[in-house]
């Protein structure tokens, strides 16, 4: 049976914008986040406290957090790769943070400049500081269904990293198909393996749509009892350290699927589409949501 409720984690302002070549102004970033909360999204990853040398697009995250209109009941989160990032996030008033590890060694090196083991050791003080400040921490695992440098990744490798993140106190573990090569059978099998160690309600799916498989992967994951999915409005996004990783699953397309299944989310599709259309116009980019494009013709 399918879950009755699904939570959408909107990652467009972070995963989406971190990969845009054209720099986006602060006011447009703030407007995007406010449009998304107005559409009914209750969890928005609004920025990233990483090195500006690595990801210049996220250098103004503190200003974004200062500029948004915080809607009660909405969680505004940010990525924090280390204690320095966590402290900056705390200062900016971030309510929830996320640490990010990888299931493949090569990707870990390229993305965060350290081994998987080193990254996990680096997260421990972040989790400790977060606990002391009452801040919840989400954990990401990248390359769960394939690595741009190593190819196939075994579910066992993913489960090992996910378990460590969960054991150190991450309340939710998001499994990222960073390059979008995963297919439905593999996605379902992966969650089946990881759920042997971590309760299903603590797991999330993060599917990039590079190969057009993201919605199918979501459906397969729903059948496996997963009820939290990450998506980006207008299908913005990708990862600067994974070639070909353009495009998260579009939030509009995910919402359309969930609406069709009668699964409640509380999000207004029309307002979400409008938010996506607006940011695409500002960026001068095609809308990656099929639903948004279809509605345009209607
Ligand atoms: P490093 O070079 O090993 O770090 O990078 P370091 O500690 O040696 O510091 C080097 C410089 O960075 C120093 O500055 C630090 O102060 C500064 P300098 O002395 O040279 O002027 N620095 C920082 N500045 C601001 N905020 C910080 C910070 N930390 C150090 N937090 C580091 C290591 C992790 C910092 C770097 O590799 C980095 O920032 N990587 C971020 C990469 C990234 O953001 N990737 C995209 C997000 S992950 C993703 O998209 C995948 C996901 O969507 C899931 C999926 O799809 O799979 C989540
Ligand atoms: Mg991603």
Automatic annotation (TrEMBL):
The residues covered by the Pyruvate carboxyltransferase domain are 6-273
- Specify whether Metal-binding is a keyword of the entry: yes
SUPFAM superfamilies for this protein: Aldolase
Instruction: Give the InterPro entries listed for this entry.
Output: Aldolase_TIM (IPR013785), HMGL (IPR043594), PYR_CT (IPR000891)
This entry's Enzyme Commission designation comes to 4.1.3.4
Gene3D superfamilies per UniProt:
Aldolase class I
Alphabetized CDD domains for the sequence? DRE_TIM_HMGL
Any Pfam family the entry gives:
HMGL-like
Return one Gene Ontology term, BP aspect: L-leucine catabolic process
Q: In which pathway does it act?
A: Metabolic intermediate metabolism; (S)-3-hydroxy-3-methylglutaryl-CoA degradation; acetoacetate from (S)-3-hydroxy-3-methylglutaryl-CoA: step 1/1
Per UniProt, the keywords (alphabetical) are: Lyase, Metal-binding
Q: Name one GO molecular function term.
A: metal ion binding
Q: What family classification does the UniProt entry report for this protein?
A: Belongs to the HMG-CoA lyase family.
* Protein name, per record: hydroxymethylglutaryl-CoA lyase
Q: Which organism is it from?
A: Azotobacter vinelandii (strain DJ / ATCC BAA-1303)
Q: What is the lineage of its organism?
A: Bacteria, Pseudomonadati, Pseudomonadota, Gammaproteobacteria, Pseudomonadales
């Amino acid at each position: 049976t399918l879950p009755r409720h699904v939570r959408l984690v909107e990652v467009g302002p972070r995963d989406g914008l971190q990969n845009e070549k054209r720099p986006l102004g602060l006011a447009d970033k703030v407007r995007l986040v406010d449009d998304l909360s107005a559409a009914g999204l209750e969890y928005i990853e609004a920025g990233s406290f990483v090195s500006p040398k690595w990801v210049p697009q996220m250098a103004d995250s503190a200003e974004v957090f200062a500029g948004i209109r915080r809607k009660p009941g909405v969680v505004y989160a940010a990525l924090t790769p280390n204690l320095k990032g966590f402290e900056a996030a705390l200062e900016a008033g971030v309510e929830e943070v996320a640490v990010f590890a990888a299931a493949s060694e090569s990707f870990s090196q390229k993305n965060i400049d350290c081994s998987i083991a080193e990254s996990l050791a680096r997260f421990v003080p972040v989790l400790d500081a977060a606990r002391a400040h009452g801040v919840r921490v989400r954990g990401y695992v990248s390359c769960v269904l394939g690595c741009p440098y190593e190819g196939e990744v075994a579910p066992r490798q993913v489960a090992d990293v996910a378990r460590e993140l969960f054991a150190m106190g991450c309340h939710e573990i998001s499994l990222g198909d960073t390059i979008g090569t995963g297919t439905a059978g593999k996605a379902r099998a992966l969650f089946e393996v990881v759920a042997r160690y971590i309760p299903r309600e603590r797991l999330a799916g993060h599917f990039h749509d590079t190969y057009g498989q993201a919605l199918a992967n979501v459906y397969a994951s729903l059948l496996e009892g997963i009820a939290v999915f990450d998506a980006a409005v207008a299908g913005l996004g990708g990862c600067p350290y994974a070639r070909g990783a353009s495009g998260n699953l579009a939030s509009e397309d995910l919402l359309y699927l969930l609406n069709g299944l009668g699964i409640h989310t509380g999000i207004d599709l029309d307002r979400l589409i409008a938010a996506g259309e607006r940011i695409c116009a500002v960026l001068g980019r095609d809308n990656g949501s099929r639903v948004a494009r279809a509605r345009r013709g209607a």
